[in-house]
Amino acid sequence: MKTRFLSVLTLTGLLAAASAVAAPRVIEITANDTMQFSVKSIDAKVGEELKVVFTNVGTLPKEAMGHNWVLLKPGTDANAFGAAAVTAKDNNYVPVSMKDKVVASTKVLGPKQKDEVTFKLEAAGEYTYICSFPGHFAAMKGTIKVK
Ligand SMILES: [Cu+2]
Description:
By secondary structure, the chain is an alpha/beta fold. It contains 3 helices and 8 strands. The chain has a single domain (24-146), classed as Cupredoxins -  blue copper proteins (Immunoglobulin-like). The model has no long low-confidence stretch (mean pLDDT 91). Residues 31, 35, 67, 131, 133, 136, 140 line the site of copper (II) ion.
């Protein structure tokens, strides 16, 4: 009886260890009414899985000051993406014509809303992330450096 109890404990410990290894690294990012991401630079390793938990901490209405978080593949022209996004309101400002340039993206969030996205960084490089809400990408920009 005692032995079985111990082996259950051991098994539980092993499972906890295994899930800790497999769990993605969580990165919390907020956006606000002054068009700023709280995190502008992230370092990561090739093959690493990240979970971005994105929160709009502002108070202005979604129609005027909505925010999303869009991670672009290395080499993508963020300005061109931002320009194309203007007409993609129905798709959370992710233009269908440039969908193949997107690694991960959240919904457009109104005040106090939260969304999260989990993704794997398969290759080394500099990945730019932006908010593609019209007029925001010039100010709302950051980089994930993957080595
Ligand atoms: Cu924004």
